[in-house]
TrEMBL record:
Domain annotation N,N-dimethylformamidase alpha subunit: ranges: 440-543
Membrane topology summary: Multi-pass membrane protein
Protein name: Branched-chain amino acid ABC transporter permease
Native species: Hansschlegelia quercus
Localization of this protein: Cell membrane
Length: 545
């Protein structure tokens, strides 16, 4: 009979000896050895595609790096390295963001040439609005991201400057070219006033104060006759757009003028964030102010300086806003405007200039271009903001760092699987073990246990229950031999409670003079039942190991 074990005692007419006993299918120990040594992770091709050119060689030319004047930021962060695969010296671009900035700004500058005729007016107006709001958000990003001040009064500064210069232009005849500079002066005054509470307040309380200030400006202008309470705003200011031009040329001029304002805001952001003020505040991020103060960094003064300079920039934008729209409405102080601006920062990512610009582009596209969808566009903006907050850590531009962290985690998991030799010993334990033979013995014991687990079956357990002692089949004999070779410590045994009537299972201590401990309170009526109980416990420990 195939798959059967022939009992040699049957030929000697031993009482109770069966001729053949069904045996479990043969499992080769070599298979267990091969499975333990092979990699459990699918191996993929090593390397990645190169999208950027690798310059050969490096030397003195490597250190002649262009920098953004007057900051210390390099135009392209180029690093010299040695490639062990090609055995060559190479230069590689570490930070590729300037390339994307150049391509993005160039595409925005050339966009009016490729706009479809049917949507040209809408896209030009949306592009001008995008540039203004992106400039505001860049200055706001300096306050929230660089300075770490949770101010919600950025649109209050812009609105106050816009209302102030509009009134001066209407009643005092202020020309359009002076409006941004006068607005910068008004922004300086408001910035100093708002920055004073920032010395004492911080976080949530300062945000409440600034949102209250924003609402105070809205209520004051809304009820003031001088600022157009009856007309919904203050209009009639001088504008840089000539009235004699045709509408398309007017929109094109507005588009490029707002684009120039965006470039000025980017330059201000680079000057503040890339020079001394920005570097000082990078030493004192949230919850590390004590460290910065202990090293002699006056981070409070640096924060106030950044706030005041950003307020000057916001006032300049407010003056330009008034000359662009020939006035200003009360909606600049509205809570919905503040929330939309906050959504732009959150979607793009707080603390990054590209986050402010791209987040503004997404929100302006949904709010101004897709205006035909009605209130649904606001719901869509809210859903995008909610998804970014729940799923991403640093906005859209934090996806790369978040993906790299997740990828490195998975690499570590796969690497640990590939380097597994059986999980027999921790790395630090293996390093401290003097006798390295213990490592190989544990590795062999682990593979042996994996092989013996395949031999455990209901037939083997039933065979041991019928005949705990005597001649057994090969699978059962292998299991019993392994159990008998185990160390004496915690090894199961039986003790006699009452001769020939009661037996109990105990565990040996492995130490001379220390009595065995009782494993369970169950009493076995016969010796064979106690032997089978010990066998079941050993099998259970084997399967759980």
């Amino acid at each position: 009979m195939a798959g059967a074990w022939r009992n040699p005692l049957y030929l000697w007419d031993v009482e109770g000896a069966e001729e053949e006993i069904p045996a479990t299918p043969y499992a080769s120990p070599q298979r267990v050895w091969d499975e333990a040594r092979e990699s459990k992770t699918p191996m993929l091709p090593v390397g990645r595609l190169r999208y950027y050119y690798k310059w050969p060689g490096h030397g003195g030319a490597l250190w002649s790096r262009l920098r953004y004047w007057p900051t210390r930021r390099r135009v392209l962060n180029i690093r010299g390295e040695y490639n062990p695969k090609t055995l060559r010296r190479e230069k590689t671009i570490v930070d590729k963001r300037p390339i994307w900035w150049a391509l993005g700004l160039l595409a925005f500058m050339l966009a009016p040439l490729i706009m479809p005729g049917g949507y040209q007016n809408t896209l030009l107006a949306a592009g001008a609005t995008f540039s203004i709001y992106a400039a505001i958000n860049l200055c706001w990003m300096l306050i929230i991201g660089t300075a770490g001040i949770y101010s919600l009064a950025s649109y209050a500064v812009v609105g106050a400057a816009a209302f102030g210069v509009s009134w001066m232009s209407i009643h005092l005849g202020l020309p359009w070219w002076a409006l941004p500079f006068v607005g910068a002066g008004l922004g300086l005054v408001f910035g100093v006033i708002i920055a004073i509470p920032a010395i004492r307040l911080d976080g949530f309380y300062y945000a409440l104060l600034t949102i209250g200030l924003n609402e105070l400006c809205r209520v004051y202008t809304l009820q003031s006759k001088q600022f157009g309470s009856s007309t919904g705003g203050l209009y009639g200011a001088d504008s840089y757009v000539p009235d004699s031009w045709d509408p398309f040329d007017q929109q094109l001029l507005s588009y490029y003028a707002c684009f120039g304002l965006l470039l000025l805001a980017l330059a201000l952001y680079r000057i503040i964030d890339g020079r001394r003020l920005g570097r000082i505040l990078k030493m004192a991020p949230e919850k590390r102010e004590a460290f910065a103060e202990a090293t002699g960094v006056d981070y409070r003064r640096a924060r106030v300086w950044v706030f005041v300079v950003s307020s000057v920039g916001l006032g300049f934008i407010g003056g330009f806003y008034a000359s662009h729209y020939r006035g200003v409405s009360f909606s600049i102080f509205g809570f919905d405007t503040v929330l939309l601006g906050l959504a732009m920062l959150v979607i793009g990512g707080i603390g990054r200039a590209e986050g402010a610009v791209v987040g503004t582009a997404i929100v302006i596209f949904l709010d101004k271009v897709m205006i035909s969808t009605g209130p649904l566009r606001l719901v869509l903006i809210g859903l995008i903001m909610l998804a970014v907050v729940l799923l991403l850590k640093g906005g859209l531009f934090g996806i790369k760092a978040q993906f790299r962290a997740w990828r490195d985690k998975k690499k570590s998991e796969r690497r640990s699987i590939r380097s597994e030799k059986g999980g027999e010993m921790l790395p630090e334990e293996a390093a401290e073990t003097k006798d390295k033979d213990v490592l190989y013995w544990r590795r062999y014991d682990k593979m042996q246990r994996d092989f013996l687990k395949t031999l455990v079956s209901e037939e083997v357990i039933e065979e041991h229950r019928k005949q705990p002692l005597g001649q057994h089949s090969e699978p059962l004999e292998r299991l019993l031999l392994y159990f008998r070779r185990q160390p004496l410590g915690d090894k199961y045994a039986i003790t006699v409670v009452q001769p020939f009537k009661a037996y109990r299972i105990v565990a040996m201590s492995g130490q001379r003079g220390v009595a065995p401990r009782i494993v369970e309170d169950k009493i076995y009526a016969s010796q064979n039942e106690a032997y089978h109980g010990v066998f079941l416990r050993r099998v259970q420990d084997l399967l759980e190991s």
